[in-house]
C-alpha cells in the first residue's frame, strides 16, 4: 500500500533544504539564495500530505479526516508550545527589544495566520529595524492553511478521476499561484505580500500534490500497459533528479532577493523540487543513495524542530554574545553557538514533547499511557516541570514586552530633536559656495539618509556644525529622489547620500542622482553595513560608480567603520549607538579625496 511505503531519500532532501534555510537566515552572505529551500520543503510537504489521502481514496476508505486532523495537530503544535515561551523568556532575560509585538505574534501563530498578520501590519520579512522573534513561523502558518485546503482538493480530484482531468486541478492551482506572485510583485516595493501570501506561494505545495497523485495511480495507468515507458522512466528520472539537485544548489549559491526570484525563480525552484523528489523516491533509483547520508537524513528527520528553534536562537545569540564577550572576532562564534543551542533545544523538544505526542497523543506528554515504563514516568514528570517553568516565563515575557525597540525610541528622539530645531529656525542659511577642494563646513553640506544616518544625526552635527540633515526610518534609495529634488536651489555644495541600507540600488539611480546634483557639486555616497544580501552588492556598486566619476563622487566607507567599532553598534548590529563614527567616516573619505588632489 502506497500510504505505508517509506520514501527513501526524502529526509536527505529536507536536510539539504534545511541547511540552505539556516545559512540564509543566519549568514545570508554565505548563501544568498538559501530562501529557495522553503520551496523544497513546501513541495515535500504537499507530496507527503496528499499521498496518504489518495491511497485511502483509491482503496475506498475515504480521506480519513478523523486521523488526518489529529496527526497534523500533534505534529505542528506541541513543539510550538515549548519553543515559543522558551525563546520569549530567554529574550526577556537577555534582550527585551526582541519582544516587541510578541503578543500579536503568539496569537496569530496559534491561530495559523501569522503570515497574513505580518502582511497586514507591515512587518517586512526583509526588514532589519525590528526582526520579529517568530517571523520565520510565516512558513508554518502557510502550511497550516494549505493543510486545511488539501482534503478538499484530494476529494475533488478523486471525484473526477474518470474524466482524466484530476491531475489538472493541482497543476492549475500551482500555475495560478505562480502567476499571482509574478503579477503582484512590484520592483522596488517590499515583496513581503507576495512572499508570505498563501495564495502566491502555493505552487510548490500543489506540485507535490500532483506528484503524489501520479505515484499512487501510475502502476495501473502506466506500468502494465506501457513497459517501455516504465523502463525509460527508471533510467531518466534519476538523471533528471540529479540535474535538478545541481540546479537548486546553484540557485541557492547565486540567487538574489530581486525581481528574478519572485517572477520566475521561486516557481522554477518548485518545479526543480518536484523533479528531484520524483527521481529520488522512485524504486531502485540511484539518487536515493545520495540522500541517505546519515547526518543529512538526521537533519531532515528533525527538520521541523531545527527550523522552529534556529531563528529565535540566532537572534538572541547575535544580540547577546557581543555584549558578553567583547572583541572583533566574537561574531564568528555566533553561528556555532546558535547551532549548538538549536540542536540541544531540538533534542529536548523531541524527547519531552514531540515523540510522546506522536506516539500517544497530546495527553501522553504529561500522562503516561497504559504499559508505560518507569522511564516514561520520569520523562512525563520532567515534561510537566519544564512546561510549567517555561510557560510561566513566557507569560512574564509577553506581559513585560516593550512597545518599541531601544533603537526605535532613540531614532524617534533624534527625529523629534531635528524637527524641533528646524521649527525654531536653527537651521542655518546656506552660505556662498566654496571651492570643493577644501574640507567643507556643515553649512556647505546637505545630507539625506536613512535610519542609520538618523541615528548618527548628533555626531554629524558635531563634526559638521550647521549641516542640513534630512534622515528618516526605512528610507530607500527610491525615496531619496523626492527629498533631493525638493531642495532645488537650496541644495548645498556637498551632497551626502546614505541610502544603501534598505534595499538594492538600481545602477541607473546613481546616474540620476548625479544628474540632479549637477557637475558643480560633490556627491558623497555612504555605503551600508549589515547582513542583507543587497548590501555587499550596493557597496560594490557605489565603489564602482565613484571610481568611474572620480572628479565629483566620493564613497564614505561606513561598512568598515561599523565593523571596526562593532561594540558601539546598537543591539541590531546595524545602527550606531551614539558616537560620531558615521560622521568621521564621511569626513575621512572627503579628506582622502581632497588629499588625492581632486
TrEMBL record:
It comes from the Bacteria. Residues 8-351 form the Acyltransferase domain. One of its GO terms (biological process) is lipopolysaccharide biosynthetic process. GO terms for cellular component: membrane. Pfam families: Acyl_transf_3. Keywords: Acyltransferase, Membrane, Transferase, Transmembrane, Transmembrane helix. SUPFAM superfamilies: SGNH hydrolase. InterPro entries: Acyl_transf_3_dom, Acyltransferase_3. One of its GO terms (molecular function) is acyltransferase activity, transferring groups other than amino-acyl groups. The chain crosses the membrane at residues 6-24, 36-55, 75-94, 138-158, 165-185, 200-216, 236-255, 261-281, 302-321, 333-353, 377-398. This is Acyltransferase family protein. It comes from Bifidobacterium platyrrhinorum. The lineage of its organism: Bacteria, Bacillati, Actinomycetota, Actinomycetes, Bifidobacteriales.
